[in-house]
Specification:
Length: about 425
């Protein structure tokens, strides 16, 4: 179990460049299975989850060539389909959430797709019904081995269909889209998720020869094609990392510039941080956060009632930034209710912040009220364990703002999604070391 030691209370300064988007990368990497031609992908983040998926693809027989930092060429022209029945695959598949998205492409191109119950954060129930209901609508036969938690779908040929998804699942929509692009005839997906991750995936598939319209909306129409070809794709900057760095700057009252953020793809993220009173300046395609010497004040609603920040499927606010929002609010002037609607176990990490001296009432598993300190009292350093990726980074931000030296265990959770985080934070002045 890896550990960070963090000496808090120091000001940071400088520029930080976001990595390529983790959740986009997981979709895009699975899409290389849809063609026998070469697919080159740039700006792939060097993070644990992505590297696990690249290993899985390699074990499946995908030829992989590294072109330089973050750039790889993949060719899925001669796959080892027997790997899908192996113990090794069950092990590889379980190690991350994103592995679920190999099922759609394999089903569409080879008539069968399998996956063990995938891993990822333990942040509440994470069902897969939407994925498999979609495949069944496209004509696949579904089976599930309850003892082994092993899922399978098979179909000699998929047929386009109309479907109204029971929820706008991010990985579910990606999976169904990747199956439908090679189905016979037209597929309509209503209540589709439409995060920038999915928009990027659809644009890439269209460049490969797919016919997807409605990209960016919750109504996708897909005309199936016989075959897809190769392409080159570049990942967007990771919007969750960008939000994490906004929170980091505010809570440590540091001046930071976040480079090349792709503003047009950030949706509500800047606005939601502004509601906490954080000043966000747009400088070209960079975000500049000035040092918040006077702190930051949470806005109320027009009628004077207390602000609520909650998650919703895109273009709503992403659930992956609510832990950061909650943490940053502990030093704001004012109060806020944080409502995590999607996941039922993602707020339990607040007990660590409470240990550090934060004023938080966990109302129920989904809602927490935060009463900010306005920097009149700083958080106290402590020893903690990172329960999930975003709670992990939130605790890291709290530790960097706290007085004294904190210890964070189980940092593998953070490494799942943040590239070389300790080195990048040291480059802007953070006192953080990795100890094993
Ligand atoms: C690898 C990857 O891309 N992971 C992301 C993906 O996970 P993932 O695709 O697994 O998440 P889903 O979108 O399927 O669902 C997330 C949770 O929200 C619930 N739900 C979803 C849609 C909806 O309209 N109503 C609703 O309540 C689901 O029941 C589930 O508990 O999307 C999540 C939601 O943005 C993010 O937290 C994860 O970081
Ligand atoms: C929940 C997340 O990841 P995963 O879906 O991979 O567990 C996340 O990125 O915040």
């Amino acid at each position: 179990m890896g550990t960070f030691k963090i000496e808090g209370g120091n000001k940071l300064k400088g520029e930080i460049t976001p990595q390529g988007a983790k959740n986009e990368a997981l979709q895009i990497l699975c899409a290389v299975l849809l063609t026998e031609e070469k697919v080159t992908i740039n700006n792939i983040p060097d993070i644990v989850d992505v590297n696990k998926l690249i290993d899985l693809l390699e074990n499946l027989g995908v030829k992989i060539q590294k072109n330089g930092k973050g750039s790889y060429t993949f060719q899925a022209d001669d796959l080892r389909m027997d790997y899908l029945q192996s113990e090794r695959f069950k092990d590889d598949g379980r190690r991350l959430r994103g592995s679920i998205m190999v099922v759609g492409p394999l089903l569409a191109r080879f008539g069968k797709g399998y996956i063990p119950k995938p891993g990822g954060d333990k942040i509440g129930r994470r069902r897969l019904d939407t994925h498999f209901e979609g495949f069944i609508k496209l004509g696949a036969k579904f089976r599930y081995n309850r003892e082994e938690h092993f899922y399978g779908v098979e179909a000699p040929k998929l047929k386009g269909a109309y479907m109204l998804l029971d929820e706008a699942s991010v990985t579910g929509t990606a999976n169904i889209v990747m199956a439908a692009v090679l189905a016979e005839g037209k597929t309509t997906i209503y209540n589709a998720a439409c995060e920038p991750y999915l928009q990027q995936l659809c644009k890439m598939l269209n460049r490969m020869g797919a016919k997807i319209s409605g990209v960016g909306s919750n109504l996708l129409e897909i005309e199936g094609v016989e075959k897809l070809g190769g392409t080159t794709h570049t990942m967007l900057p990771d919007m969750i990392e960008i939000g994490s760095w906004i929170g980091l700057a505010a809570m440590t009252r540091s001046e930071l510039t976040i480079k090349n953020v792709s503003w047009n793809d950030l949706g509500q993220i800047p606005e939601v941080f502004k509601k906490l009173g954080i000043i966000i300046e747009k400088k070209g395609d960079d975000i500049h956060i000035p040092a918040h010497k006077e702190g930051y004040e949470i806005q109320n609603y027009i009628d004077g009632s207390i602000l609520t920040i909650s998650d919703a499927p895109w273009p709503g606010f992403t659930p992956d930034l609510l832990s950061v929002i909650l943490t940053v609010a502990t030093q704001a002037r004012g109060s806020v209710l944080v409502h995590q609607k999607m996941f039922e176990s993602r707020l339990f990490f607040v007990d660590k912040l409470i240990d550090m001296g934060a004023k938080i009432i966990l109302c129920d598993p989904h809602r927490a009220t935060v009463i900010g300190h306005d920097f009149k009292s700083s958080l106290k350093a402590t020893t903690m364990t990172s329960p999930d990726i975003r709670a992990g980074v939130s605790l890291l931000i709290a530790a960097l703002s706290a007085k004294g030296t904190s210890t964070i265990h189980n940092i593998e959770q953070i490494d799942r999604g943040y590239e070389n985080i300790d080195e990048r934070l040291r480059a802007i002045g953070a006192k953080i070391v990795r100890v094993d």
